[in-house]
Automatic annotation (TrEMBL):
<protein>
    <submittedName>
        <fullName>DoxX family protein</fullName>
    </submittedName>
</protein>
<dbReference type="Pfam" id="PF07681">
    <property type="entry name" value="DoxX"/>
</dbReference>
<keyword id="KW-1133">Transmembrane helix</keyword>
<feature type="transmembrane region" description="Helical">
    <location>
        <begin position="51"/>
        <end position="74"/>
    </location>
</feature>
<dbReference type="GO" id="GO:0016020">
    <property type="term" value="C:membrane"/>
</dbReference>
<feature type="transmembrane region" description="Helical">
    <location>
        <begin position="81"/>
        <end position="102"/>
    </location>
</feature>
<dbReference type="InterPro" id="IPR032808">
    <property type="entry name" value="DoxX"/>
</dbReference>
<feature type="transmembrane region" description="Helical">
    <location>
        <begin position="108"/>
        <end position="126"/>
    </location>
</feature>
<keyword id="KW-0812">Transmembrane</keyword>
<keyword id="KW-0472">Membrane</keyword>
């Protein structure tokens, strides 16, 4: 078990993104209503549904790649899917961070950084 830390971070990212994607998918209207008000004073105000769909797709891709990457690490020490999962996670988090900064939600942006740190660690370890 040389990859325990990487596996744990990939599982952490998978749970985070799959749960978030599930929430967006099954509570689409609630999320859309909240985000429309959140971004009402920004340049994204007319693009919230498209942005939400984009984030949903990226979260689900990130989560699935992290799950497959965890299994790959356990089964044969492969790192390809885990690395892609970590990279997609970082891209998704950067997009979320951009949105929070644009909306001037600095507490929300700070929370995203907490997720970004282990995602970058996973990229480093799996590269």
């Amino acid at each position: 078990m040389n990859n325990v830390a990487s596996i744990l971070i990939l599982i952490f990212l998978a749970i985070s993104f799959i749960q978030s994607g599930y929430d967006k998918l099954f509570y689409w209207k609630d999320n859309l209503d909240w985000l429309k008000s959140h971004f009402a004073q920004t340049k994204l105000k007319n693009h919230v549904p498209l942005a939400l769909l984009n984030i949903l797709i990226l979260e689900l891709i990130s989560g699935v790649l992290c799950i497959v990457g965890s299994i790959e690490l356990i089964v044969n020490n492969g790192r390809v899917f885990g690395l892609y999962g970590a990279i997609f996670s970082c891209i998704t988090l950067i997009m979320l961070l951009f949105g929070q900064r644009l909306a001037k939600d600095y507490d929300g942006a700070r929370t995203i950084v907490i997720y970004f740190i282990p995602a970058v660690m996973a990229v480093y370890w799996l590269n």
